[in-house]
Amino acid sequence: MKLSPLRLWLAVLLVSGLASPALAAGPDFSWSEAMASGKTIKIYGVSGEIEATRAPGRQASVTAIKTSKSNQTDRVRIEATPSADGITICAIYPEKHGRESTCDEHGMHGDDMEDTDVEVAFTVQVPEGVQLDARQVNGTVQATDLASDVDASTVNGSVHLSTTGLAQARTVNGSINVSMGKGTWEHPLRMKTVNGSVRLSLPHEVNAKLSASSVNGSISSDFPVTVEGAFWSRGGKLGGTIGKGGGELTIETVNGSIVISRAGGADGASDKKTKL
User: Fold this and answer.
1) 132 vs 40: CA distance, rounded Å
2) pTM metric for this prediction
3) Which residues pair with residue 54 across a beta bridge?
4) Per-residue pLDDT reduced to its tens digit, 22-71
5) For 130-135, what is the mean pLDDT?
6) 189, 188, 153: which is closest to 172 by C-alpha?
7) How much is the mean pLDDT over the chain?
8) E strand spans, 166-273
9) Which H or E run contains 274?
C-alpha cells in the first residue's frame, strides 16, 4: 500500500521517536460514517493541507491533526455539522475582539481571525459517488483517484485533483493540475489561478464550450478547437468548441501556461494541437 506524504511523514516521526505525544496519541479529530452516493463531504480549513483519497467501501472518514510551533493548538477546534446532504467539517480559529467563528451546513462564517501559527492537516476518505467540497486558505488541496465530483479551492497553494467524475479548481498563488474522467457536463466548470499554470487532462471524447485565457503564458490543446475570437498581443485567449460543444469550460491564469491534454498521452492524442 502506498503511503500518502502526510502519513509517510508521521510514520517516520513515530519510528524515529521524534513525534510529539499528541501525534503519537492519534489525531486531534476523527469522524467516520457510512455515506450513500449523492451525499457531500465539505471541508473548510484555514492553514494546512487537505488530502483526499477514495474510500475502499461506503465508509467515509475525516481525520485532522493540529500542529503549532508556539503550542497554540488548543486555540483551534474542529467542528462537524451533519445535515441531510452530508457533513460539513470546519477548522474554527479564534477571531479578534473575542468573537467566535461558526460552522454550519453552508460553510464556515468568520472574517476577522487572529494571527496564529496553528496548521490543521485534514485526511479524507471519500466513497464512490460522494461529492467532495474542499476549501482552504493557506495550503495545498489534493484529491487522488476519486470516483465522484470534486470542487476544490485555496488561496495560497496548489490544487491537484484526479477523479473519474467532474472537477473544479481555484487558487490565487499556485498551480492547478486536474484529471477528469467525464467528457460531458451540464453545469459550467472553472479552473482559475493568478500565479501558476493550469494542466487539465480529459478523456478521449469531449464535448464542451471552451474559454481559455492567459496573459503571460501559452495555451495548447490536444483537442481540436473550433476557434472563435482573436489573439492578444501577449499571451492569448482561446474560445470555441470542442467536439459537438456542450457545457462551459473556463480556464484562466495570468502568469502561467495552460495545457489541455487527452488522457492516454501520445496514443490518444490528436495529430494536431490547437496552440497559441
Assistant:
1) 6
2) 0.84
3) 126
4) 445 578 999 999 999 999 999 999 999 999 999 999 999 999 999 999 98
5) 98
6) 153
7) 86
8) 167-170, 176-180, 189-192, 198-202, 208-216, 219-221, 225-228, 236-242, 247-255, 258-262
9) strand 274-275
Indicate the DSSP class of residue 264.
T
* Long-range contacts from 6-14, C-beta under 8 angstroms, 24+ separation: 6/49, 6/51, 6/121, 6/123, 7/123, 10/65
The confidence band for 268, taking pLDDT boundaries of 50, 70 and 90, is: very low
Cβ burial, residue 233 (10 Å; 0-12/13-18/19+): exposed
Determine the residue type at 268: G
- Report the distance separating Cα 181 and Cα 164, nearest Å: 4
The whole-angstrom separation of Cα 25 and Cα 52 is 22
Amino acid sitting at position 255: N
How many Cβ atoms sit within 10 Å of the Cβ of residue 84? Answer: 6
- In 69-146, beta strands by DSSP E: 77-83, 86-92, 102-104, 107-109, 119-126, 131-135, 141-146
Q: Are 195 and 255 in contact (CB under 8 A)?
A: yes
Strands 225-228 and 167-170: unpaired
Alpha carbon distance 85, 107 (integer Å):
13
C-alpha cell, 121: 492537516
How many angstroms separate the Cα of 84 from the Cα of each of 25, 36, 40, 41? 32, 11, 10, 12
Task: Delimit the domains of the chain by residue range.
Answer: 166-276
Q: Which of 125, 139, 126, 132 is nearest to 50 (CA)?
A: 139
Q: CA geometry: angle at 37 spanning 33 and 40, to 5°?
A: 65
d(CA 44, CA 106): 10
- How many CA within 13 A on the CB side of residue 20? 11
Instruction: Report the side by side order of strands in the sheet with 59-67.
Output: 29-34, 59-67, 119-126, 50-54, 141-146, 159-163, 176-180, 198-202, 258-262, 219-221, 274-275
Residue 147: what pLDDT? 98
Question: Phi, psi (5° rounding) for residue 83?
Answer: -150, 175
